[in-house]
Design goal:
The chain is an alpha/beta fold and about 240 residues long. It is built from seven helices and twelve strands. The strands form two sheets. It has a six-stranded parallel beta sheet, sandwiched between helices.
């Protein structure tokens, strides 16, 4: 009898896990993505959109007869991680968190670590004049009232038309980003400060290396606290966990 695994995705690791896990014997994989996607790697078993909170997630898990739940969402997707933890506990489902290792401060880094996006916006006027803002599109509004700063804003998709952008330039690009190109970007736009979430992984670490080599400050937003539960850092370990059942 097959086990049905639900992967809560949105990261490169989630996509890799789903693509690999479908080849495991006696395993059915369902992939859930919160936002828009251009192409599903397992389209017949992929859903897009929210569940409707804990109640909606519980109903989905029951309706689809899910046996294993893997939370491979972005490290800053705290709400869905909390919902997944609560739902899994209520149903007695085995749950795993696939969480990439966070970036760590190294010598020559000029980090200013802050607790959240709002704090990052609040301290910028005392630090910067030209900022490379790399936080995605959903939290741009926190910076719209910041005065006397020019922003270079990079994201994958264009913000909604009703979003008021901070003063500056919008770049729409998808990673990974080479560190040499990141250095050129910081130089070209005379960036003195980078604002980044501590997302971890290799795809966007180039900007951190570039900032270090150029002596550019980095306002680093710490990760939110994750719910308790078993965690692994890579796809291989997640596959091993699935095989244990």
């Amino acid at each position: 009898m097959s086990l049905i695994v639900l992967i809560l995705g949105g990261t490169q690791e989630a996509a890799e896990l789903a693509k690999t896990a479908i080849n495991l014997p006696n395993i059915q994989v369902k992939l859930s993505l919160a936002g828009r996607i251009s192409q599903s790697i397992i389209s017949e078993n992929c859903r897009v959109g929210g569940f409707g909170g804990v109640t909606g997630l519980i109903k989905y898990l029951q309706a689809e007869k899910i046996d294993l739940l893997i939370d491979a969402t972005h490290p800053f997707a705290a709400k869905i991680s909390d919902n997944a933890a609560i739902a899994a506990e209520k149903l007695g489902l085995p749950r795993l968190m696939l969480v990439r290792r966070e970036w760590e401060f190294v010598t020559d880094d000029k980090w200013i670590e802050v607790e959240n996006i709002q704090t990052a916006a609040a301290i910028l006027p005392s630090l910067a004049k030209r900022v490379f803002l790399t936080i995605g599109r959903q939290e741009l509004t926190a910076f719209t009232q910041v005065e006397n700063i020019w922003f270079l804003m990079r994201m994958i998709e264009k913000p909604a038309p009703d979003i008021i952008l901070p003063k500056g330039l919008l770049l729409l690009k998808r990673g990974p980003f080479d560190q040499d190109l990141e250095k050129q970007l910081l130089d070209e736009y005379n960036i003195d400060t980078v604002v980044s979430k501590n997302s971890g992984g290799d795809a966007t670490y180039g900007k951190i290396i570039a900032a270090r080599e150029l002596g550019v400050k980095v306002v680093m937003v710490k990760r939110p606290m994750l719910p308790q539960g078993k965690q692994v850092e890579d796809v291989e370990a997640a596959l091993k966990w699935i095989k244990e059942f």
